[in-house]
Amino acid sequence: MHTPEIRQKFVERRAQGWSLVRISSELGVSRSTLIEWSRQLRFEIQNQLAIEMDDLLNRLLGPRQTRASGLAEKLARIEAELRKRDLATLSTQGLFALSRTLRLEIERETGDLPFVVPVKDIPNEEYIRRVQEWKP
Q1: Measured between alpha carbons, how far is 119 from 8 in angstroms, rounded to an integer?
Q2: Domain co-membership, 30 together with 79
Q3: What DSSP assignment string belongs to 55-89?
Q4: Contacts of 53 by beta carbon, 8 Å cutoff, 6+ apart
Q5: Both 131 and 80 in a single domain?
Q6: pTM of the predicted model, to two decimals?
């Protein structure tokens, strides 16, 4: 009844944050059908959202590897400066705080991307205990 292209447009619009009412109006598909598609295509929508967010982050802040490398360079400079300092001074405390902040940012920047697949599609030899569940 509906073409794969229409369903793909639905996934893209939903991942972009469009409401079901707006999508229904644009694609000429009933809201009840879109609700059903939301359930059926939830993993595709979530993965498309991850792609959209990754692209936005790259456009705003640059590639993930570049951000992490820049943070690592700053951290190395701060830690080199810390090795020269007397730990009793206030500015040293500030450097420790900045060092901690940069470490946390590096951990965040190098974390996993939230791509998911339905559990039934994961081969037994690749299944791991930590499986991300889809949250609407």
Answers
A1: 22
A2: no
A3: HHHHHHH--HHHHHHHHHHHHHHHHHHHHHS-TTS
A4: none
A5: yes
A6: 0.54
Q: Is 2 in the same domain as 47?
A: yes
Query: Encoding tokens for residue 33?
Result: 């059908």
- Domain hosting 68: range is 63-136
pLDDT in tens, 86-113: 755 657 778 888 888 888 888 888 877 6
What amino acid is encoded at 115 in this protein? Answer: F
The two structure tokens encoding residue 16: 């972009």
Q: In which residue are the tokens 């791991």 written? A: 128
Give how many domains the chain has, as a whole number.
2
8 Å CB contact between 14 and 38 = yes
**Number of CB atoms found within 10 A of residue 19's CB:** 12
Give the per-residue pLDDT at 87.
58
- CB-CB neighbours of 115 under 10 Å: 12
Task: Determine the Cα–Cα distance for residues 110 and 119; give it in Å rounded to an integer.
Answer: 25
Tokens describing residue 85: 């300092």
Instruction: Quickly tell me which residue has 């000429």 as its tokens.
Output: 28
Q: Which of 79, 76, 57 is nearest to 66 (CA)?
A: 57
CA distance 62 to 85: 33
